[in-house]
Amino acid sequence: MYEILMPIDTDADRALRQARAVEDLPGGPEDVHVTVLHSFTDNPSGASITQLQAARRVESHLEDVGYSVTLDEQSGSPADAILDVAAEDDVDLICIGGRKRSPTGKVLFGSVTQSVLLDADRSVLVCRRNDDA
């Protein structure tokens, strides 16, 4: 079984672009398991990944086309959570959604995608931002 980790934020359109990128990978859905991950950085109300529209939409989409999907949630730094879950689950691929940021924004606020790309010890697929979105 090919294991894919798909970290998402709250942007449902970006999550669906990630799901479509998974569909474009070689092989069929019967040989792939996708773990959809959301890391809550601040969650005083105790929200769950199942409450996120992005998670529900991507789970439904992937299951409709035949993929096995698990939802997972973590707390803390998104980049750390992604790398930790990738190692714990020994995933084959991390499928992450990119977003357009200015060079200043990357320096001031960091970049989850950049951190994952630099620190991952496995393959990372970055889904391009849709310029029409």
**Rg calc:** 14 Å
**Beta-strand level of the residues, as a percent range?**
15-25%
Query: Mean pLDDT across all residues, rounded?
Result: 89
User: Segments where pLDDT lies below 50 for 5+ residues?
Assistant: none
Number of distinct beta strands: 5
**What's the shape?**
globular
Give the class from helix and strand content and strand pairing: alpha/beta
H/E element string? EHEHEHEHHE
Range of helix content = 25-40%
How would a crystallographer describe the biggest sheet? 5 strands, parallel
Distance between the termini: 33 Å
Protein name: Nucleotide-binding universal stress protein, UspA family
Family: Belongs to the universal stress protein A family.
How would you describe this structure to a colleague?
This protein has five helices and five strands; from the N terminus they run βαβαβαβααβ. With 133 residues, the chain is of the alpha/beta class. It has a single domain (2-127), classed as Rossmann fold. It has a five-stranded parallel β-sheet with strand order 3-2-1-4-5, sandwiched between helices. β2 (32-40), α2 (53-64) and β3 form a beta-alpha-beta unit. α1 packs parallel to α2 (53-64). The termini are far apart. Belongs to the universal stress protein A family. This is Nucleotide-binding universal stress protein, UspA family. Residues 4-128 form the UspA domain.
